[in-house]
Amino acid sequence: MARAKKNLRKSGRRHPLATVALVAIGLLVTGAAYAGFSQTSATAEIDLTSPQTIEEGKKLFGANCATCHGAEAQGTNDGPSLYGAGAASVNFQVGTGRMPLAFQGPQGMVKPKQFTEEQTLQMAAYVASLAPGPALPESQYLQGDGDIANGGQLFKINCAMCHNVAAAGGALTQGKFAPKLTGVAPTHIYEAMVTGPQNMPVFSDANISPQEKADIISYLKYIENEPAVGGLTLGSIGPVAEGLFIWVIGLGAIIGLTVWVTAKSN
Q: Hey, which of 23, 55, 207, 265 has its CA 20 to 30 A from 10?
């Protein structure tokens, strides 16, 4: 037995499990590379101006969206016209799961997507073919490598009154709300700025240039990934949470200390 093992080592043959380990490592590396690459390459693989892509999108639209938006996307009492909505609006609404609506309410809710990225882009191509509208953002503005300081200033001036200075979101009127912006894909942040979904105003290139939009995205990704240097954020919703903490914890501690001192003095 010992001689067999010695001969195996001398022959230079690999252990039987070595091949399995190499294959497993290769699959992990390939999967990680594909996950990072697919987000940026999916749009490039689909020609939004192709008649075939537009036709596929029209079929998907007719089967899933026409009930509310009309057979020709002209709009109905249950849904607005999509003429001029552009590819960016479709990619945002469908890509975040807001559309199709789960139920009628003050605004569409984020939920698991019902369509693949390819199907979403096909529907976006169809709607974009109906009339000019906001196009999908260029990848150069989605890298998160813009001017963070300028992005922070722009965000505080234009966005913080609804989304909170820490992008934690906030309540609006009549059951509406501005959603938190952490964990949102750069593509969807950009698309929201150029399309103005639901309660949000439209920030055209005349208001905020594409590079300034890239700076805002860079700021949002910075505050999302950086740790809170001030300690507990308490939800980052401002004085309401901080005041509640002071009253409940701070005042409770004072009362407890008072009771303890009184009991000791007796």
A: 23
